[in-house]
Amino acid sequence: MYFAHMKDTPKEMPDHSALYQIAEQQAGYFTTAQARQARFSPSLLSYHLDTGRFERVRPRVYRLVQFPASPHEDLYVAWLQAGPKAVISHDSALALYDLSDLLPDQIHVTVPRTTSRRRPGLRLHTKRLEPADATRYEGLPVTTVLRTLIDVAAAGLADEQVQQAIREALRRGLITRESLLQLTASRGGRIKRLVDEALHEGEQR
Questions:
Q1: How many other C-beta atoms can be found within 10 angstroms of the C-beta atom of residue 73?
Q2: Domain count of the chain?
Q3: Which position has the higher pLDDT, 71 or 141?
Q4: 94 and 133 in one domain?
Q5: I need a surface site. Which of 42, 124, 148, 199 has the fewest CB within 10 A?
Q6: Within this chain, do residues 140 and 43 fall inside the same structural domain, yes or no?
Q7: Using CA atoms, how far apart are residues 164 and 42, in angstroms rounded to an integer?
Q8: Which residues contact 1 (CB under 8 A, 6 or more apart)?
Q9: pTM value?
Q10: Could you tell me how many helices (H) and strands (E) the chain has, helices first?
Q11: Do 109 and 36 fall within a single domain?
Q12: What is the pLDDT of residue 140?
């Protein structure tokens, strides 16, 4: 639906369908930049905020109010805040995969080094990620299980928490024993010790 009093030319008319499709893939959320891609001007954004169709949840992050609440909304908002190249990672990725009982007090996101570090409430990491280090899970860009295990081990997560995550990931088929052995062969260090101990304990059960 378009509002004639906005006086946009046909070429400038907003594409409501395009904006809906973007938001649908993001639990109902979208950014100012994504709205601009769908030809929503700042004045039209303000109009829909005033009428209650849109809700501003963070600076430059909005929600279509017609979407019902869904799991992981905080992660969607954090990802959109951090930028399109951001990836949920570390403790937050572990929680997203349901491989940890711990709830991180900040949302962990890995971003390019050029990303602004001013993101209150977010814990930003700038380690380089290869394409194979990231995937999609529950619709969110997130580090793979193997990469997540490497990251939390390197960041100092307690031994028992890392080992618990390894055993649970194996039990659920999220990773294989072979991939773990390849990981330890190429990495060594703390992650090798934790993997060896987790596999040894698993064999004893």
A1: 16
A2: 2
A3: 141
A4: yes
A5: 42
A6: no
A7: 48
A8: 16
A9: 0.86
A10: 9, 8
A11: no
A12: 95
Could you tell me if residue 4 is inside a domain?
no
- Residue 7 CB-density burial (10 A; 0-12 exposed, 13-18 middle, 19+ buried): exposed
Query: Residue 126 and residue 111: Cα distance in Å, rounded?
Result: 5
pLDDT digits (tens, 9 = 90+) for 74-119: 999 999 999 889 999 999 999 999 999 888 889 999 998 876 666 7
Same domain, 177 and 86: yes
121 lies in the same domain as 184: yes
Contact 113, 126 (CB under 8 A): yes
Helix (H) or strand (E) run with residue 110 in it: strand 107-110
pLDDT, tens digit, for every residue of 172-191? 999 999 999 988 888 878 89
Total length of the chain: 205
Whether the predicted pLDDT of 2 surpasses 60: no
196 lies in the same domain as 167: yes
pLDDT at 10 over 70: no
Q: Which domain holds residue 28?
A: 12-64
Asked whether residue 98 is domain-assigned, the answer is yes
Contacts of residue 81, Cβ cutoff 8 Å, sequence gap at least 6: 58, 60, 61, 119, 122
User: How high is the pLDDT of residue 117?
Assistant: 64
Residue with tokens 């390849």: 182
Same domain, 57 and 118: no
Does 2 map to a domain? Answer: no
Q: 104 and 32 in one domain?
A: no
166 in any annotated domain: yes
